[in-house]
Amino acid sequence: MIAVPLVLYNEIRKTFIITWNYRVDLAIQFLTLVLFFVFISFFIGSGTIKSEGLPAVLLGYLIWLYAVMAISNMSTSLSGEASVGTLEQIYMSPVPAWMVIVGWVVANFLQHTVIVALLGVILVMILPVTLPLELAALPPFVLTMIGLIGFGYAIGGLTLVYKQVSSVSSLLTNVLLFLNGSLLPVHHFPAWLETIAVFLPTTQGIIVLRRVVVDGASLTAVWQDGSMVFLAIQSFVFLVVGWILFNVGERVAKQRGTLGQY
Amino acid sequence: MNAIELVSLTKTFHRRGSAPVRAVVDLSLSIPRGQIFGFLGPNGAGKTTTIKMMCGVVIPDAGSVKLLGHDVQRDRSAAMRQFGTVLEGARTVYWRLSAMENLMYFGRLKGVRDRYLKPRADRLLKELDLWERRNDDVREFSRGMQQKVAISAALMSDPPIVLLDEPTLGLDVESAQTVREWVSRLAKEENKTVLLTTHQLAMAQELCDRVAIINEGRLIADRSVDELLSLFRRDYYTIRVGGLFNGQGSLPEGLTLEPGDSETTISGDIADQDSLHQVLRCLREEGLPILSVQRAAPSLEHIFMDLLNEDRK
After folding, report:
1. Domains along chain B?
2. Of A43, A159, B59, B123, which has fewest CB within 10 angstroms of its CB?
3. Element (H, E) at B29
4. Which residues contact A113 (CB under 8 A, 6 or more apart)?
């Protein structure tokens, strides 16, 4: 029996060493993220940066970055491992592949948390925006992440079968920025678009997190109005469906003999 | 208990818009412990598919694979502990990690406990002459050194079975020699079972105790190398005599004469020693000096080609 912490440690260590090798690229990406938010604030303020409404947008932006992590990284990690020739080696481990992939998810989550935290601090310093750290935000944040991880597994399953999913996942993450309510709360959307938007990953999480962090609502309040319950149900559905799709994708790839192809 | 047991292994690939490809057809093999087993065949014969089914990364349509008694599909975790693999291809380790980091990573992935990891990695890196460059990124290595890292990574868990798909492909002469010596040592000194595929039949003849040849997914031969060589041994002789010899009529049928400027070469199959003596007597009666008599043994390569041609008829 191989200990789960050992598997997680192995994947986190590998991910951080490889990421450190690409530190210059990472620094440029980080700068891009800072500038991107500054420009978003500038456009939302019609040419000026206004503090009004900016915390809600910043919160949405930071959650969207986690969505990028969960969706894009899953497909690029799987395709990357396949092209490097190490994906099949991972499947030859006594450890189930899903456990190794949980290691990737945790490693990516930690990496993105460092990036998001640093980004948040810098943006709060350079822009007229504050984002209170509320402990009550933790449960909706965790639920949002669970849903995202499930969605990431679904994308992973599709990547194992169809291979060229990275462009689709890139399209999806970009669309999410506009449809998950990061920039504009979904209740401003036309009714039909709002209906679609609330079923997308992170949308409900952003709604609940905004209520707690920006509006100061209590966890009891978001539970009683049903928004937290909806988030919990949605996240677990994403997790279960994602898990099933990943396992189906894995089996199909093994049957077709295409696991190591990219 | 056999190290490797394949029973009626079958795999057909269905590709959209093209006819199904029968990659492996009803393949059964039993390989005992400590044997170096050559798995030979032309490109597309089904060798890599078979190895991948043995590793559990391709699911067979029918049949089973057991590694030291553990079924790859039903008892996956235990089966995965029995082998280390180097699959065909230039990149089977992380180029952005150092040789040491790769070995530590793949060791942990195979479930090697931390207290055994470092000593094992140190030993492998020293034995394969990688010690001085253990902290360099693998991307800075030559192809031969990268292959050595891949082989070391496969051996990190000290597995009883080693599966090598074209282990010397693309290597220079010196690196290929190191790998060959290493493979031989694994079986002789460490009693590991080694299954290797290769197109270098001289290497297979040098290293393997036994070979199987497959063509279009079907097994067409499975014997020890010595058995195969003796079974296909032809008593083929080449006799050189001084001067011009014109007495073909006095020689047994099937021999060919090649007259040269100052000598004649007679060659062909001579069934037994009596027939050979008869030929030599004829030559002596003609008064020609015998310059040399050579018996040519067919190589594994000749046998491989003969078997393939026979199978394709």
Report:
1. 4-225 (3.40.50.300), 234-296 (3.30.70)
2. A43
3. strand B21-31
4. none
**In this complex, which of B59, B91, B110 lies closest to A254 when CB atoms are compared?**
B59
Q: How far is CA B110 from CA A31, A157, B3, B38, in A?
A: 39, 24, 19, 25
Residue A40 predicted with pLDDT over 60? yes
Q: At what angle do helices A4-21 and A97-126 cross, to 10 degrees?
A: 50
- Rama region for A86: left / alpha / beta (φ>0; ψ in -120 to 50; rest): alpha
C-alpha dihedral over B242, B248, B253, B256, to 10 degrees? Answer: 50
Predicted structure pTM score: 0.83
Per-residue pLDDT of B4-44, as tens digits, reads 999 999 999 988 888 899 999 999 999 999 999 999 988 88
d(CA B214, CA B283): 44
Q: Which residues of B87-117 are buried (b: 16+ CB within 10 A; e: fewer)?
A: bbbeebbbbbbbbbbbbbbbbbbbbbeeeeb
Whether the per-residue pLDDT at B119 is higher than 80: the answer is yes
Phi, then psi, of A77 in degrees rounded to 5: -65, -45
Residues B15, A255, B5, B148: is their CA dihedral positive or negative?
positive
Per DSSP, the three-state class of B87 is coil
**Taking CB atoms and an 8 Å limit, are B95 and A84 in contact across chains?**
yes
Mutating which of B48, B58, B73, B95 best tests the A interface, going by the most A Cβ atoms within 10 A?
A: B58
| Closest residue of chain A to B49, computed from CA coordinates | A257
What would the pLDDT profile of A86-100 be if each residue is shown by its tens digit? 899 999 999 888 889
Count of residues making up chain A: 262
Query: How far from each other are the two terminal CA atoms of chain A, in whole angstroms?
Result: 31
- How far is A51 from A55, CA to CA, in rounded Å? 8
Rounded to the nearest 10 degrees, how much is the dihedral formed by the CA atoms of B159, B164, B170, B171? 40
% chain A with pLDDT above 90: 55
